[in-house]
Amino acid sequence: MEYGDIVIVNHPRHPFYNYVGKIVGKRGKRSPDDTLMLVLINNRSYIIPESMLSIYSYGQQNN
Questions:
Q1: 33-51, pLDDT tens digit by residue?
Q2: Which of 12, 31, 43, 52 is surrounded by the most beta carbons within 10 Å?
Q3: What is the reported pTM?
Q4: What does the pLDDT look like over 13-35, one tens digit per residue?
Q5: Domain 6-55 - what CATH class?
Q6: How many CB atoms lie within 10 A of CB 53?
Q7: Alpha-carbon distance 41 to 21, whole Å?
């Protein structure tokens, strides 16, 4: 995932499950293979692990 990609939160236990946002930054590593991403959702930015995100395709559900 790169800056500017549109993503959807795909982890059912995350409070923003199925919300769509835009990647605006990276904030280090949660584990060696999981980067913390800064995601803009509803005009606010949140730090969400990359493992809980997937690239959004316009056929998916949107909140």
A1: 999 999 999 999 999 999 9
A2: 52
A3: 0.85
A4: 999 999 999 999 999 998 899 99
A5: mainly beta
A6: 22
A7: 5
Exposure string for 2-39, b = 16+ CB within 10 A, e = fewer = eeeeebbbeeeeeebeebbbebeeeeeebeeeebbbbb
Give me the residue spans of the domains in the chain: 6-55
**Nearest-5° Cα angle at 27, 1 to 22:** 45
On the CB side of 52, how many CA atoms lie within 13 Å of its CA? 21
Spatial distance between the Cα atoms of 43 and 28, rounded to a whole number of angstroms: 22
Q: Which sign does the torsion angle of CA 49, 51, 56, 60 carry?
A: negative
User: What's the half-sphere exposure (Cβ side, CA atoms, 13 Å) at 33?
Assistant: 1
pLDDT-based confidence at 5, cuts 50/70/90?
very high
